[in-house]
Amino acid sequence: MKSRAFDAHENRLDIYIGVDTRATFTCSVCDTPHQTYYDLDVDDQAWRHLDFWEYKSFLHAPHPRVQCSVYGKVKYALVPWGRCNSSFTIAFEMHVLTLAKDMPVLCAARLVREWDKRLWRIIHHYVARALDRQDLAPLTRVAMDETSSRRGHHYVTVVMDSDTRRVVFATPGKDAAAIGAFREHLRAHGGHPKQIQEYTSDMSAAFMRGMADVFPQAQHTVDKFHVMKLVNEAVDEVRRAEQVKTPELKKTRYIWLKNEQDLTKKQQDTLATLSASHLRTAKAYQLKITFQGLWRYPARMAGLYFDLWSYWAAHSRLEPMIAVAKTLKAFRDRILRWFETGMTTGMLEAMNGLIQAAKRKARGYRTTKNLIAMIYLIGGGLRLQG
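Above: the chain's sequence. Below: its structure in token form.
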């Protein structure tokens, strides 16, 4: 039996639901169905439901209790429209999760006219519930990177399945302890450390040390985007040193760092003019362009190409390029492994862009726990079931 009460003055719709005491129920503690009805809680409970037009709506019902056959005690029964210990209906909570994926939680809270802290509780509940069902038994190849959690040296390590492109783990920090935490998470979700055969990351000593200790059998592919980042940084270092005596190099930073096809016509003309000169920056730029060609080279010739470039850069008389050549040479085999695995952290970098954009819109997250929940929500591909 249902009845409705509409109050335009209070801007709310109240729906009252009766209980059929002849039915059987599911225990809210152990999820055991077909439990015997015991009694009704004397006080009606209210659940916030989806809005009816511009009016808040609430479901009201006396909460049935059951004599649980598992615990042997009286427990609250589950109701079909809401979960245990929540004052929202499942439909309302699913709406909140949809909004949270596309806008800051504070904005979502204003839209649904609730406190943002209450919405964070919803998000944390469903993310944790989805993670409990996570099956990592098929996981064999992972990509890992860190993302900034807040200003200063505060980071979150993110691990993604390289094959499904879904985030499988996120934890505070970016050191070897984060790798150990991933191992425990893997074990807790049907996996085993020995199953991880390949991983890709930057050249972080902490990551590599942690992986060598925890996943010694895993082969490392150095991410090519981080390699190119190092080369770009060396080019910019040459430019910054040279612009002191060469004013025409000022305000040309992105001309040397961007791919030529991404430059405007004016920037392309400037690049052509400066590249034709005998500037040290132009020489560093040519080294960069030549190195980019490595990724298009046949795999069987990549090692020779890499060695020739390393020799050229090492004898370029450009200190930043000499230094980067030395660094890359130390990781030669791990860099060239890309030709065998094709693994990069590119999908993580893309997701990191989404996370940082969301963080900027939200003007930061109050806690690292909230940031990690959003990482799972945006990149985890979780099945958020009611």
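The first strand starts at residue 2 and ends at 7.
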